Amino acid sequence: TDTRTFIPFLNNIEERYFKLPKYIVADAGYGSEQNYSEVLHRNRTPLITYNTYRKEKKKKYKENLFYVSNWDYDSDNDFFTCPNGKKVPFQYLSNRTDKAGFKRTFRVYECEDCSGCPLRVHCTKAKGNRKIFYNAHWEQQKAYIREQLSKEETGEIYGKRKIDVEPVFGFLKANL
What we know:
This protein is of the alpha+beta class. It has 8 helices and 7 strands. The strands form 2 sheets. A 5-stranded antiparallel sheet has the order 3-4-5-6-7. A two-stranded parallel sheet has the order 1-2. Strand 1, helix 2 and strand 2 (45-48) form a beta-alpha-beta unit. The protein is elongated.
């Protein structure tokens, strides 16, 4: 995928051509926790959407009760509440390392009891109870990206990418 080419691309630009600009602009194919971390580590601002950015902005998404992002969360007691009113409490931490060696930490939540739930078919395909793998760092990064793209100045910078870059790719595809 494009996500794995991003950091080598940034390194190549800095080593061979020029200092990176204040804003790093790219499309959703480059939006990942690792890439956001890298850009922020370089003291730059990522203007890179993530794969569900546009979907999350739609009314249909915001009103879907089965997306965890739309569930109530009790921060004092660390549990979500599912659409059927059941508690989905924190169970354990899960550390995962991907093929490229990037490490992520997930907070794993599991519903107290999904048996007999009338909403189960809409909520999960799991044989047991519904589990949520919540990556707090990734969720914070996504919130930061949404904030950056909603600002007038940075939103305009990101918008120029569509005008400046996309036609070039279209011409290349059409002619080659």
